[in-house]
Amino acid sequence: MNEIEQILAEQERQAATEAPKFTVSEFTELLNGTLEYAYTGVMVEGEVTSFKVNQGKWVFFDLKDEGGSINCFMPLFQLRLPLEDGMKVVVKATPKLTKWGRFSLTVKQILPVGEGNIKKSFEFLKKKLEQEGLFDVSRKRPIPEDLVKIGVISSTQAAGYVDFCKIINERWGGLEIQVAHTMVQGLAAAEQIISAIKYFNEKAEVQIIAIMRGGGSADDLAVFNDEALVRAIAESRIPIITGIGHEVDESLADLAADIRASTPSNVAEMLTNEKQAEIQRIKFNVNGVGNKILQEIEQAREGGKTKIKMVGEAVNMKISHLENEIKVKQKVLEGLNPDTILKQGYALVTGKLKEGEMVEIATYESKAKAEIKEVKKRIK
Amino acid sequence: MEKETINQKIERLDEVVDWFYGENFDLAKATDKYAEAAKLAKEIEKDLDSLKNEISVIQKDFTKN
Question: Is the CATH code 2.60.40.1930 the one for domain A20-113?
Fold first, then answer.
């Protein structure tokens, strides 16, 4: 061994004695600590293979692409979608070295990738939540009356949010709108939206919560089919309106919400009246009331005229009745007048009806005196 | 007393209007009621033209869980 080789050997010996020594457990722990620090919540996309559930509690599968494969593990209760081999997914996970020396990802969340997988996952979860009654019509609450305070959950950079603000400002005034800025796509979005729903339910005095995002691909909107988010919407103490994607897009969040608007702009339209239309309605009503007063006055006037006419008619009838009575009485009186009887050819004899006595005889035209020659009893 | 909102004013106006078509209508009181309705309508129109919405972003950062 030459001098240089001796120096190198000495350096190697010194390095070996100075390098830290670990037990296997300690080293595993150190590695896990380093991995957790360096890769907290890493996202990995790949295809699912060797999917299996052990003891009804633990989910194992491999995530692979053309360049490699990683073992994945998660508790079954955290699995929110139907997983099967061949499915393309993106997972949020923490890398870990097991005590048996196997490297794996401890998965916290999985989202399907690709239209076919998203649809399959959607239908599975829809059926499950439907059976639990989360979408029942009986659960739906209407938009509160006298709406003043609105909570909005959206990305303030999203075009849909901008549309919402524009439309609501054009339509109505005096509203207090509190906005929770969250992501509206990607794996982290569901937790953020859930956190915002909790915030509004616990800390803010809003009357309704609007969850919004504009249109996007099926991947972009997949977050609104997240089971935990759908449950948070269904459990919200405050009514929730959704305006997600375009008119044709339907998410499980829409189904669980109290009210579904087709777009963020439509949320603004459903929450408010159009102020010009409201002003027209008010003017129409007040004018209607003015006309009603005129109508009532006219009716009262007509009513007065009718009553005066009725009184006049009653008085006339009474007068006519009295006139008839007088006429009848006049006829009776006329019948009792002696001249009327004399006119009929009768004569009035005054004096004593006794032989030799003088009596006076009066007819209608003349008077005469006569002596009584004989008095006899009249035969009746 | 809390300030009456636009919606509360509209509700009050609708109640006044309903009075004209209800059983309690009284022609003797109608002109006063009409004046009340016309005043409310003007106030509401003015409010709707002038009131702006207050939009504020909550300070809590929901992007950091």
Answer: no
